[in-house]
Structure formats: structure tokens, C-alpha cells
Amino acid sequence: MVVPYKHEPFTDFLVDENKRAFEDGLKIVQSYLNQDYSLIIGRNRVATKDKIISINPANKEEVIGTVSKATKAHAEEAMQIADKTFKSWRKSKPEMRADILFRAAAIVRRRKHEFSALLVKEAGKPWNEADADTAEAIDFMEYYGRQMLKLKDGIPVESRQIEYNRFHYIPLGVGIVISPWNFAFAIMAGMTSAAFVAGNTVLLKPASTTPVIAAKFIEVLEEAGLPAGVVNYLPGSGSEVGDYLVDHPRTRFISFTGSRDVGVRIYERAAKVHDGQIWLKRVIAEMGGKDTIVVDSSADLDLAAKSIVASAFGFSGQKCSACSRAVVLEDVYGEVLDKVVELTKGLTVGDPKNRSNFMGPVIDQAAYEKIVSYIEIGKEEGNLVAGGKADNSKGFFIEPTIFSDVDEHARIMKEEIFGPVVAFCKARDFDHAIEIANNTEYGLTGAVLTNNRDHIEKAREDFHVGNLYFNRGCTGAIVGYQPFGGFNMSGTDSKAGGPDYLILHMQAKTTSEML
Ligand SMILES: NC(=O)c1ccc[n+]([C@@H]2O[C@H](COP(=O)([O-])OP(=O)(O)OC[C@H]3O[C@@H](n4cnc5c(N)ncnc54)[C@H](O)[C@@H]3O)[C@@H](O)[C@H]2O)c1
Ligand SMILES: N[C@@H](CCC=O)C(=O)O
């Protein structure tokens, strides 16, 4: 009997023992920096000449690892293996597949701080953010394993006396999992786990900035007993390997998390039926956000300020759920802004290997340039009241930045920046605040700070986001507690870590036997 699911607790780093354990994790990771990682295609480790070099975004000189880079030929070989493996894997017992996930979760839990330390180095995550990423990876494995056990016998349907009807779920086939770098462990592991525990085989293309954590995850799956060929590891260029696999006629589904533009491209390409293709591909896409915290006149303003700061600047604002817009009712606007500026001035930015730094770097040069260009746009569109400086001499560091008095239609109020930049906008009244909150093409997360019950109910009905929070920040959904995913251009309305997520990786079959 499997014990009921509970989310993995976060580590309290004020406890000396935990702090030391994390420092040990950093030492372990340091001992295996700069190793070479091969592609994994079926049973074969395939080393290529062309490499992806994963670097530490806080220290560009430090190489985390070199990773073989798949070509289209490797993608084709992996597709054939995955397709062949599907023939046996689809018949494997769901209990066995779930057990592999439970074992994998246990292995990661035992090496938790090592995995988090790797995220500090490879993704530039501060300790607490890295700890939460690893905890979420564990949660996804534990949760999806249990969901599979719930779904394995299907759902009861009615039968007449002359017949026996059954309704159960069967897997889809080969799935392409394309994951982002920002939850380099949790999202990559969650998408992969959901796909294979449902009985599919997988070609995993991790983000090119964080391929090493994905390689380590595959090692864990192997140790947990996952047969060769079920999950194949194929780092490579999105436009080359990604397009090839998305277009492939044997691809049955694509599970993608990343930016709006790449998501739309995949969605469009997947809609085309290629020669030899005998199904319509399914696309599960989780995309960007432009997330808003609304502060009502009745709110606890200290709580509001803390929530904005944590949601805007945690992990340097590089969360799809990050608060990049604070919409504040005019009578409390000045007070909230002052409090947020004050808290922000106390934040430290630096190498996340030192626990004292609240914020680390942004992920790479391209992200750095994009964010800096939005800071320049912000200077035209609002008043710079905190931060604004950036330094990429050693790593990609950008100060937490606040713009005040930004018009509701300004670009920094509409476009995803994906960095530590928040725009403040004044609302006339609560209805106006919700109108502003809904005025982007996204619909991922949002929060409302209020003590007005009518306003809570209005927001519940009219604030059109997949994850809406009251009297807290807008980041930090927990698997199984706050299923996560957005509306409109934030994706295909799926909910990762929710009770209906696994079904997206399966198809329902009805059988009816005459008695
Ligand atoms: N909704 C969510 O749950 C969620 C979660 C995390 C991140 N995100 C979003 O992800 C973005 C940040 O992540 P990112 O920078 O890694 O996104 P990205 O779109 O640049 O890349 C995501 C993945 O797609 C791959 N890719 C790139 N071009 C491709 C192509 N033509 N075909 C197939 N694959 C291709 C990349 O290599 C990477 O593995 C932000 O927009 C953020 O909001 C959304
Ligand atoms: N699930 C995470 C965000 C994932 C996207 O980056 C959160 O709720 O903050």
C-alpha cells in the first residue's frame, strides 16, 4: 500500500546541520564539474564531437559540463528505438512504472542537496530556490506515480445485463519532451515522469543551458530500474533536433514548456500531417506569463509589499509565474510603492553559492541583453525608482528593478521580460485593477491582496488566470496542492501537478463484451 502523497518539505537553512549538508552538496558537485556527458539512445551512450558547453551563469569561466549535441541522424535513431521500445513498454504493468518513480524519488531525496547544489551552479539558483526546485522534482515523481495507480483500472461506466463495459486508459506512443532551463530539474523531471509512467516512451530534449541536471536525472532513472529505450536523452539545438522531432510522423505527442513563441511554433508545426502519419499529434504546451499582483485599498500593505518583492525578484524574476506587474489602487499606491522600494533596496545580488545572496545571476548573455533592453524601454515608459544597473563582467547580474507610474498599455506592462523587473501601475478602483490585470495575451498566475470579501469573489470570477492566489504572492505552486498552468497564450490549459495531467498523456478506450 502506497502512503498518501504529501509534498516534500523545504529545507530550513537556519539549522546548522542543514547548512553543512548543503555545503557538502556543493563540494560533491564541485568534484564532478567539467565532465563529459553523452547522448543516451536506447542502451548506447553516444559521444559527439560537437558539444553544448554548460557554464555557471554566476561565473562564466566555470564549466559545469560538456554535453554531446544530437543531430537529426541521432534524433532519427532515437525515434526508432523509442518506437520499438513502446511496443513492450505500453504493456508493462502500471504498478511497476509507478514503483520506478517512487524509487527514483527516494534516490533523489537521499541526494537532495547534491541536486540542489547542481542547480545553484548550472542554473544560478539561490539555495532556497534550488531546494524548492529539487523538492518539486521529488513531488512530481511521487504524485504522478500515485496518479497512475489511481487511473490504471480506468473509470467505471454503466453496463446493461447482457454486456460488460469497460473504460480505461492506454498510452499514446512516443512523446517528445522539450523542457525549459528555469525549473531545470522539476519541470524536466515532471514532464518526463508523467509521459513514461503513463506507458509512453520519451525523447527528452532538455534546455541547452541546463543539460547536466537532466543527464543526472537519467542516471537516477537507470538506477531506479527504468529499462533502456524508455527515456532517451537528446540534448541539441531546438531549431534542428526540436523541429525534426516535432515534424516526425512517428511522434504521437509533444510535451513542451517554454516561451510563447517557441510554443506557438511547435503547435503550428505539430498540426501538419506528414507522409506516413496516421494520427493527429497532441500538444501539451505550457508557455509564458505576464503575471500581476493586485493590491486593494483594504489590503494588509506590509503583506502586499513582501508578496510583490518575493514574487518579482525570487530567482531574479525568471519564473513564468513571476510578478512583473503590480497594480495598486490609487489611495494606497504611494505607500505600497515606498514599502516595496525599501524592501528591494535591502536585497543582495551575487554568486548564489553564498547563501547570503538573495538573488543570483540571470541565465545567460541572451537573457541578460533582453532584460537590459527592457530596462531601457522602462526608462522611457516609467520612473526608475530602484535598481536598473547590470554587470556581466563575471556573471550575468542584474539589480532588482522597479518602475513606477507605468501606463497600463506600456510595453513593460504587456510583454514577458523574464527578469528582475516590475512595473507599478495605478488603478482607479478594483474593477479597473482587474481590467488591467486581464489586459495581456497571457493568463498564467495572479494574486490579489485584499480584505474585502466582495472583491475576492469578483476576482475569483473575472481575473482570468490559471492560478489565482489571495493574500499571498503569485509564485510557488505546490504539486498536488495548487495544480499549475495557465490560460490563453500561457498554454494549452493543462495543469501540471494536477489530477487530470496524466490523462493528457493517454487515450481512453471503451470495450464492450456481450455476456
Ligand atoms: N507555463 C509554465 O509552466 C512555464 C514554466 C516554466 C517556464 N515557462 C516559460 O518558459 C520560458 C523560459 O524558458 P526557455 O527560455 O527555456 O524557453 P524557450 O522557449 O526558449 O525554450 C524551451 C525549450 O524549447 C527548446 N526549443 C527552442 N526552439 C525550439 C524549436 N524550434 N523546436 C523545439 N524546441 C525548441 C529549447 O531548446 C528549450 O529546450 C518563459 O517564457 C517562461 O514563462 C513556462
Ligand atoms: N510552478 C512555478 C513556476 C514555474 C514556471 O516557471 C510557480 O508556481 O512558481
Automatic annotation (TrEMBL):
The keyword Metal-binding does not apply. PROSITE patterns: ALDEHYDE_DEHYDR_CYS (PS00070), ALDEHYDE_DEHYDR_GLU (PS00687). The active site is at E286, C320. Pfam families: Aldedh (PF00171). It catalyses: L-glutamate 5-semialdehyde + NAD(+) + H2O = L-glutamate + NADH + 2 H(+). The keyword Transmembrane helix does not apply. Residues 50-510 form the Aldehyde dehydrogenase domain. One of its GO terms (molecular function) is L-glutamate gamma-semialdehyde dehydrogenase activity. InterPro entries: Ald_DH/histidinol_DH (IPR016161), Ald_DH_C (IPR016163), Ald_DH_CS_CYS (IPR016160), Ald_DH_CS_GLU (IPR029510), Ald_DH_N (IPR016162), Aldehyde_DH_dom (IPR015590), Proline_metab_enzyme (IPR050485), RocA (IPR005932). Belongs to the aldehyde dehydrogenase family. RocA subfamily. NCBIfam families: D1pyr5carbox2, PRK03137.1. This is 1-pyrroline-5-carboxylate dehydrogenase. The lineage of its organism: Bacteria, Bacillati, Bacillota, Bacilli, Bacillales.
